[in-house]
Amino acid sequence: MSNFMPMLYAFWDSDITYSFRKSRVAVISALVLLAMFLTAIFAPSLAPQDPFNIAELDLFDSELPPAWAEGGSAAYLLGTDTQARDVLSSIMYGMRISLLVGFASVILAAVMGVALGLLGGFLGGIVDAVLMRIADVLLSFPPILVALLINGILRGALPSSAQAESALIVLILSIGLTNWVQYARTVRGSTMVERRKEYIEAARTLGTGKLAIMIKHILPNVLGPVLVIATINLGMAVLTEATLSFLGVGMPPTQPSLGTLIQIGNEFLFSGIWWVVVFPAAALAILVLAVNLLGDWLRDALNPKLR
Amino acid sequence: MTPQITPDDILSVQNISKRFDVSEPFLNRLLERRPRRILTAVNDISFEVPRGKTFAVVGESGCGKSTVARLLMGLHSPSGGTIRFEGDDITHMPPGKPAALRRRMQMIFQDPYASLNPRWRVRDIIGEPLKNFGICKTRAEVTREVEKLLSQVGLNPADAKKFPHEFSGGQRQRLSIARALTTRPELLICDEPTSALDVSVQSQILNLMKDLQDEFNMSYIFISHDLAVVWYMADVLAVMYLGKIVEVGPKEEIFGNPQHPYTRLLMETVPKLTVGGAERAPVAGEVPNPISPPPGCAFHPRCPMANDTCRSVAPALNLREGGQKSACHAADEGRLKPWLRLAAE
Amino acid sequence: MSLLELDNIVVEFPTRRGPLEAVKGLSLDLDEGEILGLVGESGAGKSITGAAITGLIEPPGLIRSGEVRLRGARIDNLPADKMRRIRGKEIGAIFQDPLTSLNPVYTVGEQLVDTMRVHLGLDQKTARQRAIDWLAEVGIPAPEARLDQYPHQFSGGMRQRVVIALALCAEPKLIIADEPTTALDVSVQAQILSLLKRLCRENGTAVVLVTHDMGVIAETADRVAVMYAGRLVEIGDVKQVIEEPLHPYTRGLMASIPQIGIRDRRLTQIEGAMPGLRNPAPGCAFAPRCPRAMDHCHSIRPAPQDAGTGQVACHLYGETS
C-alpha cells in the first residue's frame, strides 16, 4: 500500500495521462460519457419519473412540448409522448439499456475474439485455417445483416412467450457474435509476431507449457490494440442495437432502448410531436460520437509510432 | 566415419540434419504449378563438445549455426541423426523435457530486446525456471534466489522489481545469463550473445561468461560470426558453411593453419586493427541461396582452387596434420598453399 | 577552405520534460577527397551528426545552434526545397539497411536514371547508359539485364552495391555513410568497403563514415573522430588514434576489442555504461568511468585542444593538466 501514492502520481504524470489532459476533445468526450454512464446507472434515482410504471402516468399530460416551448411544463423538461411518458426519463432509462447491451456485447465479442485469435495465432495449422475462414465469411457480410440473422435464428428457437424477456440476452448475443472477428484478427496477427520472438523460445526451453505460454506470455503483449478496438466497437454496438430495435427486432417497447424510442417516436415525426423522436436520436448521436472520439484519441495515444 | 565419443564429452551430435519445407501454400503451388521447396538448413553434421570447454560454431548468415542451437535445445526436431547429452538420447525430446536432463542445458539468445518478456518483471522472468523445475517452492525462496543470481551477474539485487526496458542492452544480456543460471546448467548454449552489443559492453559480458565458466565448470557452445570473439572464447571450433561443417578442431591449429579456403576467407576478412598493411584482396561472391545449393562442394563458386572434382563431388571431413579436420578436395589433393600466419602481437 | 565544416553544432530534441541534447557543441571539418571516420557506441550521437549534415533530423529534433557549412556556405538553415537539391547533388547518403534504402516498387534502373536526370540534367538515353556503367563499376554482373530488376531480386550485398551506385551517380562531393556494412556478412563487408574506398578515391569524393566498428575505420578511413555522450573526445589521423590513442575512452575502447593472436586471459573492460542524455553531469562525461580521472575532471568540462595529429578533449593534455 505504501506503493500507492507514488504509483498514483506516476500514473497522473505518465505519458498517456498527459496526452489525455492535453487533448480537449478527449477530456470533453470522457466527461460526456461519464455523465451518460452515471445517468444510466442511477436512472431510477435521477429520473423525474419512471415512464414504465403506469401508475405514474397522467394521460392529461400527454403530448406536451418541451419546457421552453409554448404549452410546455417544467415537470416534463423535454416533453411527453402520446402516452404521457416523460421523454427525459425515457431517455435515461433507454440509455441504460443501450449502454448495457453495448458493453455486454463488446465484452462478449472481446473475450471470444481474443481467445480465438490467440488459439489460431499460436497453434497455427488447421485450427488457424478454420477460424480464419469462418472469420472471412462473417466479414463478407455487412454486420447489421449478420446481427439480424443471428437474432432471427435465436428468436426462432425461442417460444414466442419468452421472446420479450429474453430480448436483452438475444441482442447481446447477436451483436457479440457478430463483432468478435476484428478482435480475433488483430490478436492473431500480434500473436503470430510474438510467437517467433526469442522470449517465447526461452520460455519453451524452460519447460513452460503451451497454455501457460499463451496466457501468461503472449496475452499481455497482444492486448494493447484490444482496448482501442473495444472502445470504437462500443459505438458500433450501440448503433447496431439501435438499428435492430428500430427495425422492431430489438428491445420491445416495454423495455425500450434508445433505438426503440426512436422507432416509437418516428411515427409521430411529421404529425408535429417532433420532440418524441428528436431528443432520443440526439442522445444516441452524442453517445456514439463521444465514444468514437474517445476511441480515436486512445488509438493515437497508444500508437507507439506517434509518440 | 565413426565419431570418437569419449566419456569426457558432455554432448555428442551425430549426423543431424534439419530440412524445412518452405514451399508456397498448397493452392498457390497447385495453380502455378510450382515444385515443393525444401531448405536444408543443417546437412549431416557431427561433433562432440568436451566437458568444461568452449566449443564455438562460426559461420555467416544462412550457414545453419542458429538452427543447430535450436536443434540441441529441442526447439526444432531433427530430420535425421541423434543428439546425446551425457550419453542420454535427447534427439526428439520437446524443449524442457525430460526435465531432469533439460535443466542441465540452457540457452542464451542474441537479441537482448526480444529475449525477455517486456511485460514481466525481472523477478518473474528469472523466477520462471525456478518454479518450473521446482527449485524454489515459496515466493520467499524465489526472491532470495533471484537476488543471489542478480548479484552473481553483476546487477543490483534491488532491480528485481524492474521491467526489462529499464535496463540497457548489456544489462539485459546479464539478465538472460542469470535466467540461464537458475538451474545450475552444465552446458550453456550461447547464440551470438554479444553480437548486438557495443564493443565496450561486449568485453564485460565476455569476461563475465569466462568467470562464470570457471566458477561453475560449465561447458559452452558459443555461436558467433565474429572470429576475434571466437579466438578469445573458444577451445575447439567448427566452421560452418551452408549447413555443413567445413572445418573443425582445436582453436590454435585452425587459426594457425586453416585447412579450408572458406576458413581462410573468414580469417582474411576480419578487419585488422593495424593501419597501412597490404590491402586485402577480398574473395568475391556471397553465400548462395540455401534452397538451391551448388553441386559438389558448396563453396566451389567462390573458391580460387576449385577444380572439376570440387564442382561435382562433395568433400568429406578428413583429418589434417595439425589435428583438425576439414572437408576440402584441395586439402586432400595437397593443393592447399601454405598459410602465411597473420601478424599478431 | 574545407569541404565540410561543422561549427559547434548542438542538436536538440524537445520532450515534455525539457529538451534533450543529443549532440553537444561538436566541431569538425573535412577536406575534399578525405575519408573521415565518425566512431562511437550506441547513444554517442554519431548517427544524429550524420543526419545533421544531410538535413535529415526527424522533427521535432533540430539544430539548435551552430552551423553546418558546405564549401563555406551555410546549409543547415536552408529552406526545404534548396536542401533537397543539395542532397543528392552535393551530398550523397548510404544507410545501413539496404532493404529499406531502395524503393521496392521501382526498378534499380529507374531509381538510378531518375536521380541522374534530376541532378545532372541528362536525357533518358544518356542516363540509362550511365546507369549501366555504374552498375558495372560497382561490380554487378550482367548490368544491362539487372538494370530492369527490382531491389528484392538482389541479394543483400548486391543491394548495398546498388545503393553505393545510387549515392555516387549524381557525382556528389561528399558522402555520408551510416553503418554501411553493419547489416552485411563479414565476407561481404570487406568487398563493400574496398569498393567504397576505391570509388571515392577515384572520384575525389569525401566520405563521413559513421560506424561503431573500429576495424572498419582502420581499413578505410584517413582520419577518425571519436564521439562519447554527444561530444567529440578525440580526432586525429587514423594510425595515431588506433595505435596510440590519447583519450582514456579511446584507449579503453581499443583495449576491449578482442584480437586474434592475443592470449590475454581477460579482455580489458570499461566499467559502467555511457551516461544517458538526460541531466548531463558537469565536467567530463567520461570521468565516472575513467581510470585516470582527476578531481577537476568531475567539475570542469575539457574543451578540445590540439594534441597528437589532431585534438583531444581531456584534462590530461594541454594547459590544464
Write up this protein.
Chain B: One of its GO terms (cellular component) is plasma membrane. Chain B: GO terms for molecular function: ATP binding; ATP hydrolysis activity. Chain B: Belongs to the ABC transporter superfamily. Chain B: InterPro entries: AAA+_ATPase (IPR003593), ABC_transp_ATP-bind (IPR050319), ABC_transporter-like_ATP-bd (IPR003439), ABC_transporter-like_CS (IPR017871), Oligopep_ABC_C (IPR013563), P-loop_NTPase (IPR027417). Chain B: It is a peripheral membrane protein. Chain A: Keywords: Cell membrane, Membrane, Transmembrane, Transmembrane helix, Transport. The complex is a heterotrimer of chains A (307), B (345) and C (321). With 307 residues, chain A is mainly alpha-helical. Chain A contains 13 helices and no strands. Helices cover 73% and strands 0% of the residues of chain A. In chain A, helix 3 packs across helix 13 and helix 5 crosses helix 11. The two termini of chain A are 31 Å apart. Chain B has 345 residues and is α/β, with parallel strands linked by helices. Chain B has a domain at 235-271 and 287-345. Chain B has helices at 26-32, 65-73, 99-102, 122-132, 139-152, 169-181, 199-216, 227-233, 251-256, 261-269, 308-312, 329-332; strands at 9-21, 38-50, 54-58, 80-85, 88-89, 105-108, 187-191, 219-224, 236-241, 244-250, 318-319, 325-326. In chain B, the strands form 2 sheets. In chain B, strands 6-7-8-3-9-10-12-11 form an 8-stranded mixed beta sheet, sandwiched between helices. A 4-stranded antiparallel beta sheet of chain B has the order 2-1-4-5, with helices on one face. The longest helix of chain B has 18 residues, at 199-216. The mean pLDDT of chain B is 88. Chain C has a domain at 222-321. In chain C, a hairpin with a 2-residue loop joins strand 11 (305-307) and strand 12 (310-312). Chain C has helices spanning 46-54, 80-89, 98-101, 108-120, 124-137, 143-146, 156-168, 186-203, 214-220, 238-243, 248-255; strands at 4-15, 18-30, 35-39, 62-70, 73-74, 91-94, 174-178, 206-211, 223-228, 231-237, 305-307, 310-312. In chain C, the strands form 2 sheets. An 8-stranded mixed beta sheet of chain C has the order 6-7-8-3-9-10-12-11, with helices on both faces. In chain C, strands 2-1-4-5 form a 4-stranded antiparallel beta sheet. The radius of gyration of chain C is 21 Å and the shape is globular. Chain C is an alpha/beta fold and 321 residues long. Chain C contains 11 helices and 12 strands. Classes of the chains: A mainly alpha (307), B alpha/beta (345), C alpha/beta (321). Chains in contact: A-B, B-C. The interface between B and C is large, with 47 and 44 residues.
